[in-house]
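Sorry, any thoughts here?
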Amino acid sequence: MHRAVLLTLGRLPKGLELARCLHRAGWSVYVADPFATHLSMPSRAVKRSFRVAAPNHDLDRFNSDILSIIEQYGITHVAPVSEEALYVARLADRFPPSVTLLTAPFDALIRVHDKLTFIETARSAGLPAPETHVASSAAAAALARRADYVVKPRLGCSGMGLRFGAAGAPLAAAETSPATIVQERVRGRELSSLSFVREGAVLGGVLYEGRVFAGTVATNFARVDDAPAVEAWIAAFTARTGWTGFIAFDFIADDDGGVWPIECNPRLTSGVHFFDHDDLAAAIAGDRRDGDGGGIKLKPQGQFQEGHTTLVKVYEAMFRPRLFARRLGQMLAARDVLWSWRDPAPFLLMTPASWPILAEVIFKGAAFGEAATRDIEWRPPQATGPGGIAGAVSGAIPGTAPAAGAVRVSENSFTAHETAV
């Protein structure tokens, strides 16, 4: 069966991993990205790359670009990669009937992407979750008075806007917004997960923890096999919500055995680097079901890294001997997520291919996560047109009223770049 997949982002290693996985299985892989160059562009796994509009700069044009690629190149599957998943899922009702969206529907995505409604969903499913309130509420102020807390945007990503507060320290006036939450701070072991799920059944998953960090983002991470309570929490959540697609969680496991979900990423994460390519491709294609051979196998390697960034963190610690030794040891223990003998170009050309991100980090002081996602992160509806999100996108925060009007398809404006197959 011919399968042609459109990945709607190519700049991140997780997207490259998915491209290589599906290419190995015989899929034709196309990649769309708002950046003129991106990490996956030189990969042999990518048949063609397209530059599209940034969804939170010009949503009408982004929609038109994606629909045009689907029509012109016979796309059979669309796979969101990162924060753009919400925009793509919102557009999915305009896909041809023959096209499969490889993620959950928009309503399901936004409910767990929103950090408040995710906690509410977990609690309504009978699962433990930390106390969390809208920052503008009296309950949030009371929580800040009696316990250490965390303030963060409901719709934030990559750790942007995160602040820790001590018990008794009042919330800043600028933080008391309906778009912000206050959450009880839980201390313990920080764990992340990625699962591939179909109709509530986990077909495969991995738990891992960061070993080297750039800000709040782990650049070096190792598999974890000793947290069955976390695995049970994930299985219960996905079963009770009937989830389909990739879903990832961040947890704190406390010293008393408690499992506390901090937030949910309803999309691909760095955990994909641990999955066996053949098994994952079979699951995505629908050829693997619950119970087939114990689920999606994992690669034998237990630790991976984004080597370029990890090396920078090693150099940063050069004059702190213990930290330097620890980071160097972690770097030497991990396998690079970009390097492949069969597909060396993304590793060798990482700097020029990733220049749109690196330029923001080097010259403007942006965090890597911010530079990589600021043009694709989900934002509340604003004015239509370049510089604002089209009013046709409904409910950035569940419970808010959708803006009126339909998305207009503009003339095709994407550009293509063909690479070796």
Notes: The chain has three domains: 1-103+355-361+373-421, 104-128+187-343, 131-184.
